[in-house]
Amino acid sequence: MNETSAKGPGAIRVRPGTIELNARATAEQRIRLVFHNTGDRPIQIGSHIHLPDVNPALEFDRARAQGYRLDVPAGASQRFEPGVSRELDIVALGGRGVVPGVRLPEHLREGEA
């Protein structure tokens, strides 16, 4: 069972070469930002989350990240331990760049108890 095969159930067959992630994104649709976890707990962000909607303890330029997500493979995530800063690439969301319903806008949260 030490041999690998491209045949049979569960076989994974790939084309030779390199796969470019988010290949349709132009240079103008990519930004590099610094993220800093100011909280006391780890924060994890998935590949398709709209960045301005993530945990408020993660500091970064939210206005600049409007309509963007992490530039990572689908299903991947980034974890930020407390006090950790990291510079990451982000990429524009497809379509209208809107992800409704992830987090309530600030003006709707004012009456929270």
TrEMBL record:
Keywords: Hydrolase. InterPro entries: Urease_beta-like, Urease_betasu_sf, Urease_subunit. It comes from the Bacteria. One of its GO terms (cellular component) is urease complex. It catalyses: urea + 2 H2O + H(+) = hydrogencarbonate + 2 NH4(+). The keyword Iron does not apply. One of its GO terms (molecular function) is urease activity. One of its GO terms (biological process) is urea catabolic process. SUPFAM superfamilies: Urease, beta-subunit (SSF51278). The keyword Phosphoprotein does not apply. This is Urease subunit beta.
